[in-house]
Amino acid sequence: xxxxxxxxxxxxxxxxxxxxxxxxxxxxxxxxxxxxxxxxxxxxxxxxxxxxxxxxxxxxxxxxxxxxxxxxxxxxxxxxxxxxxxxxxxxxxxxxxxxxxxxxxxxxx
Length: 109
Hints:
InterPro entries: Phage_TAC_11 (IPR021791)
Helix content: 40-55%
Mean pLDDT: 89
Strand order of the largest sheet: 1-2
Number of domains: 1
Protein name: Gene transfer agent family protein
Structural class: mainly alpha
Organism: Iodidimonas gelatinilytica
Number of strands: 2
Largest sheet: 2 strands, antiparallel
Strand content: 5-15%
Pfam family, one: Phage_TAC_11
Number of helices: 5
Shape: globular
Order of helices and strands: EEHHHHH
Low-confidence stretches: none
């Protein structure tokens, strides 16, 4: 697995005590839109302060970049890990990922 590339929109953060690597590829974004919601509606919801744990879990699931021999956790397992971590750090990662998808620098930097 290649390491994270910030200019590509990659995000790495601690989720339930383990590093969690997110990469927003075209395939990942397409799966999110097919199975959950349009990316731009998720961006708008986040901008309006209406982020749901389910939204984060779905986006994290589809953007998860697994290492060799590593499986991507289910949406439910990621949701459980978000709750176990507390919402603050996953919310920061979610906002950074959406900013990267839009091609904008993360405002928290």
